[in-house]
């Protein structure tokens, strides 16, 4: 069974079109890369009921839910509290989280005390860029991971603390290649690659560009096996289509 | 009661992080501009079950759901069929839709016949840029609007056919202003603007930049009343904070 992940983006500024959400795209690429099937991406406003509904709806179909946004110390930051309520956990001052804030913001730490409140049993994730720590909390064998919405903070925390942890969960990775064809009509290319869409652990997407491009994503247990699958699919594509160029991962040279 | 809208983005390429979804941001801004409260934005893969689940989940809390993506003629385009199933409607050849395709793609129209299949009772929306028509279908007093995922097609169709229709539904518009302050600490600004967050039909968002920026969004029955509310809120902000500059809509000069 492939491990499934979902992403919940919290912030009214996203729903009002004020801010373009780029976090979910970055996270989706990362999660796919370490072997997850990303099932749903949901954006909700800074409203407790919507965050709670959303988290529950994503947990229904996911082993891991990553939340971003609404973790700060301003009044509209309510993600931690909403997560606690959705999971039926307490919401309390986390001593370890406050120590992390104190280490970076000595005299100002008290201003940010709100960012140290988390669901009971949450394990804080250090924020080495901004103020608010993230956290990870286990729930019925699943993991909920909360990260700030500021992209530079979210990315640093994910890469340093979350990615290594999740990689060990999936036991697989994915790799992608881009094939540029000499075909000008997507309908024709779609017809020719249909058979490849039936293969397990292989995703083939035709893009409506001229000439038509194809993205291939494959999953494998490790770099070697993923590369072998990717090469096989690229071979299949090349036999069916008139291929102009192939862009593949450096790890799969040869 | 404010009219509520949601957006569902269909496409496995979004969930795998291959494509950055910019459609939902554009639509959220448009829908907010014509007076909607955007409640949820959801991205799901090209899987019938997920599209059906998603549409139902958004209809629960919305008067209008806008869907983008998966409307084409390739094998993985299954949005129309999934919408039909979610709403309990038939899925059938739409003569008016096929005529729209024929008008633009004479001899090739037969290749695109799949794009002419729609839920029973759907009203086609012409696509003057690409191949696939969109559609609008009424369901229990709500509207489901399906548009292609290619941004240039989606935008043209929304602005020309959908926006005028929806504008008449909400009977209101929204306007936004951006206030740049001379304050360097978001926690301080948050403290000072808290009272404004209690006002109905006013959204105030502080941004963690240095100096701190504030976005204000207000709703009103028409341009004049929205401008008046915006001016009042800008006045309130200016009394509370040290304001450096204000960027407001051209319509509200004075």
TrEMBL record, chains A, B:
Signal sequence, renumbered to the chain: none
CDD domains associated with the record: cinA (cd00885)
Superkingdom of origin: Archaea
Ranges of residues in domain MoaB/Mog: 6-168
Record-given protein name: Competence/damage-inducible protein A
Lineage of the organism: Archaea, Thermoproteota, Thermoprotei, Desulfurococcales, Desulfurococcaceae
């Amino acid at each position: 069974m492939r491990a499934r992940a979902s992403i919940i983006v919290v912030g009214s500024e996203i729903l009002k079109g004020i801010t373009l959400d780029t976090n979910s795209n970055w996270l989706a690429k990362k999660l796919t890369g370490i072997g997850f099937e990303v099932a749903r991406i949901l954006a909700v406003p800074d409203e407790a009921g919507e965050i709670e509904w959303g988290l529950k709806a994503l947990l229904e179909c996911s082993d891991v839910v990553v939340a971003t946004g609404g973790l700060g110390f301003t009044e509209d930051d309510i993600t931690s509290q909403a997560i606690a309520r959705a999971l039926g956990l307490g919401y309390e001052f986390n001593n370890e989280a406050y120590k992390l804030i104190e280490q970076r913001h000595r005299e100002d730490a008290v201003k940010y005390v709100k960012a140290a409140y988390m669901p009971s049993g949450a394990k804080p994730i250090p924020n080495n860029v901004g103020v608010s720590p993230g956290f990870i909390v286990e729930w019925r064998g699943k993991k909920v991971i909360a990260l700030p919405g500021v992209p530079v903070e979210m990315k640093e925390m994910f890469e340093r603390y979350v990615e290594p942890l999740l990689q060990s969960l999936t036991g697989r990775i994915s790799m992608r290649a881009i094939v540029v064809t000499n075909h000008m009509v997507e309908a024709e290319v779609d017809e020719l690659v249909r058979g490849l869409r039936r293969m397990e652990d292989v995703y083939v997407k035709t893009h409506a560009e001229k000439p038509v491009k194809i993205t291939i994503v494959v999953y494998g247990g490790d770099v070697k096996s993923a590369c072998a699958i990717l090469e096989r699919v690229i071979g299949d594509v090349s036999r069916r289509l008139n291929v102009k160029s192939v862009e593949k991962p450096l790890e799969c040279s040869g």
